[in-house]
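Help needed: design a sequence for this.
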């Protein structure tokens, strides 16, 4: 049995922090002990970890740099067992320290690749969630993300009243600007047919990016229902077609896996790992950055016979069960713990 301390990347909960807690639970299920270290925040990931039963250490810090300095001091003096660095921030903060797992979640920009390679210095292993990201980190092992089982009632499409759905961080990188333009094209061709359910909070989105998003949404604001944070079950129950139009390369594509779990048809862009998650035979993939092509693919998905839509959703659900379910996640994690980490620990001893 090994003790793992999960080190958070951010104070607030985003996709990476959701995976931190999921990995923590999976490690406990496999017989290990787990604690969490995170920036002090009243309602952040550390507080959520404590609510879920993890012993938690809060690092008092007024910003990211102070958190990194505090984490490095804490890690050098108080940490026991293996430190699981859940993102670039804790990995860079503890670079060179022993007995670390470096787990990189962010989209592989040039800056993140350089930082990730520096952060991996001295690590037992570097993990990435997809083959797409592994091309930037050739020595990394792949640990795919996974999701909870999301159950919703099957949709019967009303072709006259279609609800498209976007779930995630409303930012230009996630394709919200492209989606707004595609929605305008769809509405021009079929006035009154489409509505967009826009779910998600602008966490980690800068002021300038938020302004760009607001300017893009303004011309179609009468077609958009903005609900902020939403339960996955509520979101997927409400939409006919989920749209994931990312422009920047995705390191994984958690919302795609969630749609697969829910059995809801979706459209993805070809940015990064999204097609890898959806599967090479998935029929509804749009060119990233092209509003016109996105509108065409959305129209094609909606024009497909109901039997085809259900068959695509069922195949996606089977793919999710095999690769991205909690059971699959534990299987991947067990392989890491039994076949990779023991060898790395022995070599570092």
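Sure. Designed sequence:
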């Amino acid at each position: 049995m090994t003790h793992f301390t999960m080190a958070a990347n951010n104070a607030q909960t985003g996709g990476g922090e959701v995976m931190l807690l999921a990995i923590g639970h999976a490690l406990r299920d496999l017989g290990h002990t787990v604690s969490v270290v995170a920036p002090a925040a009243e309602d952040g990931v550390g507080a959520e970890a404590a609510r879920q039963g993890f012993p938690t250490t809060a690092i008092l810090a007024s910003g990211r740099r102070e958190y990194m300095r505090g984490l490095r001091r804490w890690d050098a003096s108080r940490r026991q067992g293996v430190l699981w660095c859940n993102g670039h921030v804790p990995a860079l903060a503890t670079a060179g320290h022993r007995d670390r797992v470096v787990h990189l979640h962010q989209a592989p920009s040039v800056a993140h690749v350089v930082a990730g390679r520096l952060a991996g210095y001295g690590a037992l292993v570097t993990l990435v969630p997809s083959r797409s990201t592994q091309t930037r980190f050739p020595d990394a092992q792949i640990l795919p993300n996974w999701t909870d089982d999301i159950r919703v009632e099957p949709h019967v499409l009303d072709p006259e009243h279609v609800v498209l759905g976007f779930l995630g961080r409303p930012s230009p990188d996630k394709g919200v600007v492209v989606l707004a333009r595609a929605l305008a094209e769809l509405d021009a061709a079929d006035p009154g047919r489409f509505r967009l359910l826009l779910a998600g909070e602008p966490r980690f989105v800068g002021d300038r990016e938020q302004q760009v998003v607001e300017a893009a949404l303004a011309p179609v604001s009468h077609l958009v229902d903005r609900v902020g944070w939403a339960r996955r079950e509520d979101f997927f129950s409400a939409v006919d077609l989920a749209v994931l139009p990312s422009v920047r390369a995705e390191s994984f594509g958690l919302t795609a896996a969630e749609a697969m779990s829910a059995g809801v048809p979706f459209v993805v862009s070809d940015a990064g790992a999204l097609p890898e998650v959806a599967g090479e035979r998935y029929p509804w993939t749009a060119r990233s950055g092209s509003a016109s092509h996105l509108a065409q693919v959305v129209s094609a998905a909606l024009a497909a016979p109901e039997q085809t839509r259900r068959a695509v959703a069922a195949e996606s659900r089977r793919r999710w069960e095999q690769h991205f379910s909690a059971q699959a996640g534990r299987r991947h994690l067990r392989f890491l713990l039994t076949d990779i980490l023991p060898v790395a620990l022995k070599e570092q001893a």
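The mean pLDDT is 91.
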